[in-house]
Task: structure prediction
Amino acid sequence: MEKNIIKGRGAYEGVMEGEALVLPDSVQGWAGLDEKTGIIIEEANSKYGAYIGGKILILPCAKGSNGWASHFYSASVAGHKPTAWVIEKLDSRCAACIVELGIPAVVETEEEACKIIHDGDYIRVDGNQGTVEILRRAE
Result:
């Protein structure tokens, strides 16, 4: 049977359900995310052209400079806010972004979330309990 619950640590409280966007290469802030459109513009990224707004972002870690969080914040202000985070390895860039956006987050997952969760899976992120549940697999 395929795993449907991933345990981690709740980093920002709240519960959110929605569609997953898995970013196995992470994404740069500067030169990686168009803050005005919420679209990934990093040409070498496997998710080039994907839209982050309204998605639950699944990432291994942050990527790029210390200003990483500010780019996601700017996209959020422009109306392109993700609804939750699942981040395998927490660092200061991710922590700043989690707090700035104020959306549920589960971090430091016990397993590689980027390999277990797939694009389009409908998942529940529980930042209170530190769990991620796959409710429905994408077709």
Q: What stands out?
A: The chain has a mean pLDDT of 94. The longest helix spans residues 68-77. The helical segments are 68-77, 92-101, 113-116. The longest strand covers residues 15-22.
